[in-house]
Amino acid sequence: MRAKGRTGWRRWTLRLAPWLGAVLLVWTAGRLLVHGLPAWLGPKLSPSSPVQRLPAGFDTVIIDPGHGGNDSGASARGLQEKRISLDLAHRLAAELRDLGFTVMLTREDDTYVSLPDRIKFAQAVPAAIFISLHCDYANHASAHGFEIYRAETKSAAVLAMVQTSAGSEPLAIAEAQLAGAIGNSLSAGLRCDHHEIRTANFFVLRNLDMPALLIECGFLTNPEDAKALADPAFRTKLAGAIARGIAFYHSSVSSPAVQEVITVGDHPGNAGAAL
Ligand SMILES: [Zn+2]
C-alpha cells in the first residue's frame, strides 16, 4: 500500500510540476515589474547562504549627511534637509557603533563639504561602504516614502579601478544586495511597504569604487513624512532600521561567526508612520 501510495503521489507531483513552474514564472515576472531588479540580484534572505565575497569584508561605514553649511538642500514644512540628514547621520552612527562597526562621517556638523571632497574622503578609507543620507522634495504633497538609490553606471575612472575577471558586476551586485537588505529592514522595522530601489547617476554614487548608496529618507513635502521626520523618536527608529539592514548585509558577506551575533527585524515597528 505504501509503495502504491508513493507512486500515486509521484504521479500527482509530475502533473502539478508544470503548474508550479507557471506560478513561479508569473511570480518572478511580477517581481521584475515591481522591483525592476532580477531576483538573483536581490538580497539573500537566508543567513545560511552567504553571498559572493566581493567586495565584502568591510568593517567601516562612511555616512554622508547630504548638504550642509550654505547648502540647505530641500526645505519644506519647517524642516531643512541638511539638518535632518545630519541628525539621522549621528543617530545611524550610534546604532552602527553599537553593532561593532567603525563609523566615519563626511561632515560632523553644519559645514559645507563639496561633493569631490566627500569622494576624496571616502576613497581614502579601505574596506568600507558608503551611505549618503538625504530627504526628498516633490511638487505634489502626495509623494511619500523612502527611495534607495544605487549607481546606474560607475564613472570611467571607477570602472578602471574595479575591473576584475568578472568586470564591474560584483560591485553592482553588492550594491543591489545592500539596497535590498536596507529596503527590507525599513519595511520590517517601520512597518511600511512604500520603498523604492532605483538607479541614478548621482555624483557620489558614480565616483566611488566601494558599495555606495543614497537614501532619500522621506519627502519633506508630504505631511505624514514630515511629521514623522520631525519626531526624534521616529528618527531613532529610522536610523536603527538602516543600521540593521547594513548589519544584515554584512552578515551575508561575512563569516558564520558574524552571522551568529547579528540578527535583523526583531524590533517593534511604528504603525502610525507614512514612511
Ligand atoms: Zn539632498
In short:
The chain has 275 residues and is of the alpha/beta class.
Question: Your description of this structure?
Answer:
The protein is an alpha/beta fold and 275 residues long. It has 2 domains: 2-35; 60-261, 3-Layer(aba) Sandwich (Aminopeptidase), CATH 3.40.630.40. It has helices at 2-35, 81-98, 115-123, 156-162, 169-190, 203-206, 223-229, 232-252, 256-261, and strands at 60-65, 75-76, 79-80, 102-105, 128-136, 146-151, 195-200, 212-219. It has a 6-stranded mixed beta sheet with strand order 4-1-5-8-6-7. Strands 2-3 form a two-stranded antiparallel sheet. Bound molecules: zinc ion. The site of zinc ion has 5 residues, from loops.
Give the key terms:
alpha/beta, disordered C terminus, binds zinc ion, 9 helices, 275 residues, 2 domains, 47% helix, Aminopeptidase
Order of helices and strands: HEEEHEHEEHHEHEHHH
Task: Give the name of the CATH architecture of the largest domain.
Answer: 3-Layer(aba) Sandwich
The CATH homologous superfamily of the largest domain corresponds to: Zn-dependent exopeptidases
Distance between the termini: 57 Å
The CATH topology of the largest domain turns out to be Aminopeptidase
CATH class of the largest domain: Alpha Beta
In the sheet with the most strands, the strands line up as 4-1-5-8-6-7
Question: How many β-strand runs?
Answer: 8
What ligands are attached or bound here? zinc ion
What oligomeric state do these chains adopt? single chain
Low-confidence stretches: 28-55, 257-274
